[in-house]
Amino acid sequence: MDIVIRSLNREFYAPLEKIHTLFTGGFDNPIDLDNFRRYVRLQSHLIKIAVQNSTSRIVGYIIGDRKRQLEGNIFSLYVLPNFRKRQIGTRLLISLEKEFHTKQPNIRYLSARIPEEFFNSTNFFLKQDFEIITKINNYVKTDLSFPHEVNPNLKIKLATKNDLQDLIKLEKICFPEYWQKNSVDFMSEIRSETSSLFVAFLEGKLVGYNINAVSASRTDGHYIRIATHPKFRRKYIGTSLTVKAFQWFKKQRTIQKILLSTYSESNFHNTMYQSWGFKFVDQEMIIAKEYNIKVYNQ
User: Fold this and answer.
1) Mind spelling out the 3-state secondary structure of the chain?
2) Which fold has domain 143-255?
């Protein structure tokens, strides 16, 4: 066969970059050029390319990333139009899956976020045993003020290793298995210099947490997750954590806007975020493939 699948090496950095810059936005090109170059340097083993032997031309690629300890992520999958319907996309996907299983043998999920304009690509993944997890709405807020009421009885602080056990308990209460973070995921957030994990205590009990991060460009803030114990809702816990989050965003000084995502079917969260001043941007679909792995570290 004239098309071979291989891992990216320096010989193909420039040609891949040229293909990458032909497309803007969406599933085909989810990261800007600077982040793309940075990623190539750090994670080239998770970039697989389809090369035409006779011309040494790149005709397709797939970009993966280790999203969480037990989850791999597909940033982008692209095949040049003249080379489609030749199973090249399937071969690229299989190659990336083998790479994940080699380097991360206890991987539980492989997932992707697909923008609305590329929803027609979903059928390809469904044929590869992926399932639709949910649709999500993306929001943006350019005003960094957040003058909302807080609960004065809450104690909010940055999380430490001592909070892990309680965080895991709260995680299992608040989220289904696919969305749950484990101790390694939480420790990564605690140790990160570009993210914040705030925990809220009421009467000595951990009743909520919030995760935030800044982009590599330092211009975007990401409001990643908010969780409140079901028995303690409507006590301004989420709002209080968000006030703390926006104070943290402001301290970063260079942030120009805040981005967040939430389940499209959750009327409660969509209404809440819009009442906080977030504006709807677009919609995405999350798909995932689950592997039946016996080892699942909590």
Assistant:
1) CCEEEEECCHHHHHHHHHHHCCCCECCCECCCHHHHHHHHHHHHHHEEEEEECCCCEEEEEEEEEEEECCEEEEEEEEECHHHCCCCHHHHHHHHHHHHHHHHCCCCCEEEEEEEHHHHHHHHHHHCCCCEEEEEEEEEEECCCCCCCCCCCCCEEEECCHHHHHHHHHHHHHHCCHHHCCCHHHHHHHHHCCCEEEEEEEECCEEEEEEEEEECCCCCEEEEEEEEECHHHCCCCHHHHHHHHHHHHHHHCCCCCEEEEEEECCCHHHHHHHHHCCCEEEEEEEEEEEECCCCCCCC
2) Aminopeptidase (3.40.630)
